[in-house]
Amino acid sequence: MHLLKLLLRTQALALLAALTAVFLPGAIAPKAIAQTSATTTVAQANLTVAQELLQLVNAERQRVNAPPLVLNDKLMAAAQRHSQDMATSRRMSHTGSDGSTMRSRIDATQYRWSTIGENVALGQPSAAAVMTAWMNSPGHRQNILNPAFTELGIGYATGAERPYWTQVFARPR
Q1: pTM value surpassing 0.85
Q2: Is the distance from CB of 74 to CB of 3 less than 8 angstroms?
Q3: At what angle do helices 2-23 and 73-89 cross, to 10 degrees?
Q4: What are the DSSP E strand ranges found in 78-142?
Q5: Helix (H) and strand (E) counts in the chain
Q6: Which of 36, 44, 130, 140 has its Cβ near the most Cβ atoms within 10 Å?
Q7: Are 85 and 97 in contact (CB under 8 A)?
Q8: What is the CA radius of gyration of the chain?
Q9: Per-residue pLDDT tens over the stretch 24-74
């Protein structure tokens, strides 16, 4: 829900910037509005990637009679921050550039969990390609199909023109 509110707010600001340009041609849009427009585009792209990846994950889970996962805003934030950190530091790892762990990143969002898991990947150009890679890896596949997990966060960022992917799996307490 928080991500949806952010998208709606940023879309409203982008619309305001566009209207300013049309009705006040000589005016310069405030820097925050211009930056928000770029943020909106990234957020919308990431939400589209997340929805696509969620569908692929749930299709695999359905094949083994595991319950479908739902996206969680806090897990999305943890996953996105980690993907962005990996892209910025240009290294793929379960440990963040600041020494953070999967647990500390999830705890930082105030998500109350009973069980957690994480998949990371680097270089796959699409949601379908990263799912294929994860499903061909026993440990990653185990996380995707684990019936104990009920919620999911997905992160996607690009660094040096290479995509970095994160999935955060959890069950709330």
Answers
A1: no
A2: no
A3: 70
A4: 113-122
A5: 6, 4
A6: 130
A7: yes
A8: 18
A9: 334 333 333 333 333 333 555 577 899 999 999 999 999 999 999 999 999
